[in-house]
Structure formats: structure tokens, C-alpha cells
Amino acid sequence: MKRTFLLNLLYSILALAGIAAAAFIAYFITAFTGGMLFYGPLVLVIAGGLALLSVISIFGLFSSRVRRIMLSGFIGLCVLAAAGYEIRQAYIHSLAEVREGEVNLTQYAPFADDTKAAALGRTASYQLTDNLPRLDGATALYPLYSAFAQAVYPQDHYSPFVQKEGTDYVVCTSTSEAYKRLITGEADIIFVAAPSLAQTKQAEQAGVELKLTPIGREAFVFFVNKRNPVSSLTIEQIKDIYSGTLTNWEQAGGKDAPIRAFQRAEDSGSQTRLQKIMEDRQLMAPPKENVADIMSGIISLTASYRNYKNALGFSFLFYASQMNASDEIKLLAIDGVPPSKESIRSGDYPFTTEFYAVTAGSTNPNIEPFLNWILSAEGQELVEKTGYTPVK
């Protein structure tokens, strides 16, 4: 009797060791194949269940019929759990997921066939024929300064992409790169948001003085997936979220889900604006996967069905609602005021911001006359027609 018990104990130990080794291997395979959230725990449950059934079998507990029923029931429950998970995943992956690339800027190029750049509908009172200022700027503002060029530059092919030094008169390299090109003298005027502290320091170190001329107003907006029940946040809630002290949507009137607050790359125009909103609050350092490298990326990530419970993103109103609009996102009201041209014009929307034509001491004689024209009735008309709010 004692010998039988010891043999059963030995068999149990060997069976448990074998099951543990198999579970260990399966667990790490699951971890490397991306199914950790569901299959990792399932592997541990299966291993535990098999271990218990093995011990029951080795020691002869219960009848063989009962043991077969227990084994069949356990296997059936595991299969049902796995099938339910896979069906749910298949359903989620069948739903639309927005995957825009960056906006196709060529559709806004000046003088291009069927260009989307706004037009005055008449010949501008100011015209340039030579010494064309080299323009650059933020993606969201390219349609505007393309419209300026279309109104006063001689008709020609102007690529939005840097081609060859000396011929790039109307290009778009993004905010951070545009500031670099302005400081190094590769651009004469850039159309951007106010510079970050780092960009101001770069100019100082290069002995360059940045001159900011306000030419229009825009709303800095926050948005969630359209399935998120939250429709409004306060300024303090925005600061709390991006400082890391408000971490669950339930704290903001939503459902119980962690907030995944996306950010942009350092020195981008929208990231600089977020930093200014934070004022004296420390902006949390986001995980690398929560940083969108291009402006359309932050819209795609928020619009994605996979992030519908969690995501919070930000951009500028014109870009998010017109240039790269998605019906999968919902713009949030701030302190109860929705972002719109009317709330920008009245100043009621809290995150109204000016954007600028920035210069840095270029010797081009046409810069000041060109800036004066932009601030004239004709230039401000193009600001309005493009979709922004004029400063005058």
C-alpha cells in the first residue's frame, strides 16, 4: 500500500513537472506571438487543470467515467473560451480602421490642375515677378500660403517638396524642419505656430532674430473616437490628463477605461501648443508608442476602433476637420464651448491661437511688401476662404 502511494506520488511529480515545462514553453511562445493578454492566462489555467486531473487520475480518485466527464468538460470549456476570443477578435478586425497617410499636399499646390488652394477670383492688386520669397511651413498651413503664392507669384510649377536649392519657392517641410531652414537661410518666410523654447534657442545661437507676424487665428482642438461618450473636457482636466494625474475616462464623465493620451513629436507645432497649455504643469513623458510622428498619425490612432475606449488626440481645427477629416473622431468642447469659426472669432473658445508668418532677417526686398499684402483685405480674404479666421 505504501509502495503504491509512493509510486503514485512519483508519477504525480513527473506529470506535474512535464506539464509545468510544457506550460512554460507555451507561455513564452504566447508572449512572443502577441497573444499574451488572453492566451497567457489561458495557458496557465490549462496547465493547472491538467495538473489537477493528472493527480486525480494517478491516485484513482473518482470513477473512470467521472474522470472522463471532468476531462471532456474542461477541454470543452477551454475550447469555447478560445473560440469566443477568436470570434471577438475577428469581429473587431472586420471593423473599419482609419489608416490615412500624410495629406497629399500636391492637391493644394499653386496653379496645379484642380488645385484645392483658395482663389480670389480676380487678379490680386499686388504681384511679384522676380526675387520671389522662398516659402515653407507647417502641413496644416500649406493650403493657405499656397493660396498666397497662387495669387501673387508668376504662374509656374511649384512643388510642395524640396527639389533643388534655389528653386524651392513654395515647399512644405513641417514646422520643426521649416524653423531649421529659416534659421539657416534656406527659407525667407515660414508659416507656422509660435516657436518652441528649443527653436527660439536655436535662433539665438545662430545669431538670428525671429520676427513673428500674426496673419490668422485657429483653434487648437482635442478629439476622441466617436464611440467615446465624453463630449467635453475642462482646461483643468486637459492639464490633469497630460500631466498624468487623471488617468481614467470615468473620472471625466466617461466609461471605466484608461486614457491613452497621444502626443506629437518634440518641436512640432501642435506639441509646442500643448506645452503652452500646460503652463506650469509638467507634461508627462509618453510611451514611445503614444507619440505620433506625423499629424495625420494622431488622427488615425484616435480614429482606430482598437483605441475607441481610450484614445485622446489633438491637432488644429482646419487640419482635423478639413485637410484630413475623419468621421471616426469627435471634436471635444472645452469648458463647454465647441471649436468653430464663430467661437474662434468671438474668442469664446479657450484654445484659440494665432499663427504667424515668421521671418529671420532675409535680405530679399519683397518680404515686407508681401507681408503687408497678406495683412491687406485681399490676403485676409484668402485666410477666410481657406478655412481659417482672419486677424483683421
**Relative helix content:** 40-55%
Which whole number gives the mean pLDDT?
Answer: 82
Tell me how many strands there are: 12
Low-pLDDT ranges: 91-101, 293-297
Largest sheet: 8 strands, mixed
- Shape call: elongated
What's the alpha carbon Rg, rounded to whole Å? 30 Å
Ends apart, CA distance between termini: 100 Å
Task: Please report the number of helical segments.
Answer: 13
Summing up helix and strand content along with how strands pair, one would put the structural category as alpha/beta
Q: Roughly what fraction of the amino acids lie in strands?
A: 5-15%
Can you write the helix and strand succession as a string?
A: HHHEHHEHEEHEEHEHEHEEHEHHE
Descriptive notes:
This protein has 392 residues and is of the alpha/beta class. The protein contains 13 helices and 12 strands. Strands 1, 2, 3, 5, 8, 9, 11 and 12 form an 8-stranded mixed beta sheet that branches. It has a two-stranded parallel sheet with strand order 4-10. Strand 6, helix 8 and strand 7 form a beta-alpha-beta unit. Helix 2 runs antiparallel to helix 3. About 4% of the residues have low confidence.
